[in-house]
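User: These chains co-purify. Model them together.
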Amino acid sequence: MRQRRHSWQALLATTASLTVAAVALTGCGGTATEEKSTPKAAAASFEGKGPINYVSNRDASGAANKSIEEWNAAHPEEKVTFIELPDSADQQRQQLIQNAQIKSDTFSVLNLDVVWTSEFAANKWILPLPADAVPTDKMIPATVNAATYRDSLVGAPDYTDGALFYFRSDLLKAAGIAAPPKTWDEMKTACKAILALPEAAGMSCYTGQFDKNEALTVNFSEAVASAGGTVVDADGKPTVNTPEAKEGLNLLVNGFKDGMFPSDAITYLEEQGRRAFQEGKLVFMRNWPFLHASLSATDGSSQVAGKFDITSIPGTDGPGVSTLGGRSLAISPFTPNKATALEFVKFFTSEEQAQKRLALSSRAPVYASLFEDPAVVAKRPFFPTLLTSLNNAQPRPKVVQYGATTKAIQEEAYAAITGAKDTDMALKDMQAKLTELTK
Amino acid sequence: MTTTTAPPAGAQTGTPHAPGPRKRGNRSPGEGRMATMLLSPTLLVLALVIVYPLLSAVHQSLFRAESGLDADGFVSDVESFVGLANYADLFVGESGRRFLNAFANTTFFTVTTVFLETVLGLCLALAMNRAFRGRSFLRASILVPWAVPTAVSGLLWRWIFQSDGIANTLLGSEILWTAEGNASKLAVIIAEVWKTAPFIGLLVLAGMQVIPGEVYEAARIDGAGWWRQLGSITLPLVKPTLLVAVLFRMLDALRMFDLPFVLIGPGKESVETLSMLAWDESNQLRHGSASAFAVMLFLYVAVVAIVFVKVLGADVTGAKELKLLSKKTARKNRLAANQTQAPADLSTSEQSNSDQKKAEATR
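Assistant: Joint model of the two components:
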């Protein structure tokens, strides 16, 4: 009797610990054992018509839905179903990859973040598009570059995003500075003059996004590019052991050292920076265009409404180089209705549809001409500045193992700006890690 | 001596077995089949949701995707068998450093949070166990942190701990809680203890409520103060419940993931736990090493659970209590037998009586 009880006890304890571990384990088994797709012919033929699924991040504005409804009305035999993915980019990527790994035909047209392009293309989870599929000559060059993998276009640019440099025009005027700074040195000089003003007491000079996050990769890439360097060169080889990269990273490191950035900026993402700027604690800020509306709010929530303006981010010798955000549409090789998918991609990313969506959505189009429409500019006054920023923009490192790459960049850049490592050491380690990841 | 004249129980039912406790092997074949049938759905489900993923993860941990791209820039499709290389990598180089760091964090968080939770949970239980006005309200409000989803409480505490948040305002400090460093460890511990102390508190409270009031009454009459009552009555009597609660919390804390992930953020080494590391690896499609991390975590959790049950004797199934009871009876019998030789008749009759009782109890 006692014997039996004892073995039950052991069994129960084992079961309990098994259950606990199963949770951790299930995330890792599963699809991984599946064989990856067999290589398809590079120039895929787009055949087969019928209903397809369009899988994308959410579009709260309803603009994407409008485009799809219009398509469905015109193509009753080739209906498109809109599948919305979770808000977290990591979860979107995971779902897309899991579907690709089991070669599921559920997702026909994928809406991909620009930084996933290389990974999906190199794994053959998306098809190269025919050369004439999208009017690339009318699009902002950086958006086309971001959707290209090894000289073949694998995505149709959908919308884009670039950095804006927000500045307190009232304080600049008070300090007698005529034009906003174009370089980091000019910004430093301007800050000295402004922070000496009585009305600027307790303010800090500048912030970007420096928390250990994707945003840090963005800010680091911009700093390096603005100093004339690259993180990864055109052949996909890392180049952060260069003097330019060092100069770029030093801009950020010295910003913290000299007290130009508020010391808590190493915990800042977009939102924290917005709050600090909106509460009048900052003179300059690098951020995305979507904040423009809340900063200009005249309902009393923003203390800086009417007191700020925007321009391109600063560089070392002239205007800086923005990194590129945004998304593009790609076609899964596992969908049977590739002809429909291609037609839908052409339709959805056409200038006409982009213009229609602009009425509802604040996402920036990839067609340069749409930025200059007076009606649009009246509604979104930052568009001309954004276009300048985008014309000078660069994609983030185009590497297949983007997840590990951005992590390595964050790790080392964060160590440098918090003073845990000196710039040389951090860049040397970063170069070694990136070399390992891109070999 | 009347017992000897009674017919054996087996005779009435017609089975050839002698009465008394049946041994394992004596089960009739029908009974065994019945037991198998009744248990098989459970075993099947367990096999599907636990054994299969476990074996699959172990299998996966022996493979590694070929790194590098071919001439056209495509990823090779091959996953090659690498034996235990994924495990060997856990102890050398960059991945080794991350693994050991995560291992240390996991252990540190488990030890500190479970200790603090136990102390705090006990205090909560003691407070809740007293009769006073508004007791039910207190009980309900103590449950709130436990009821809040971990991710939500992570966001809540992130808001409290942000650089211009409530924590810094109250302390008058400028601590960067969510940046790398020891402050972030402390933030995780505070949030975790806040969240899970009620769990221990409630389990211990349940244990306290079955202690009969007479015991305390007797202690009071004997002149025992509050501390004496706590040390000699309450704590020893809630110990079995407390140990089970602590075991559950330890197993839970060892696979901590969502709180540091949401509160401090992924990729922050100061708070990276083994689960976060496994998640990160699988997110980067390195399924082999991710599985190796997960298997190591599993082994760690299993070892902790087994050691806890064996060494501290946490009574997970209630088997201990039964053992204790039967030990007591045995000791009583021995005592009775040794007491006096004179009324031998009486002592043997008592023995056979208790033997029969035991037989009935176990039947």
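The CA atoms of residues 198 and 249 of chain B lie 11 Å apart.
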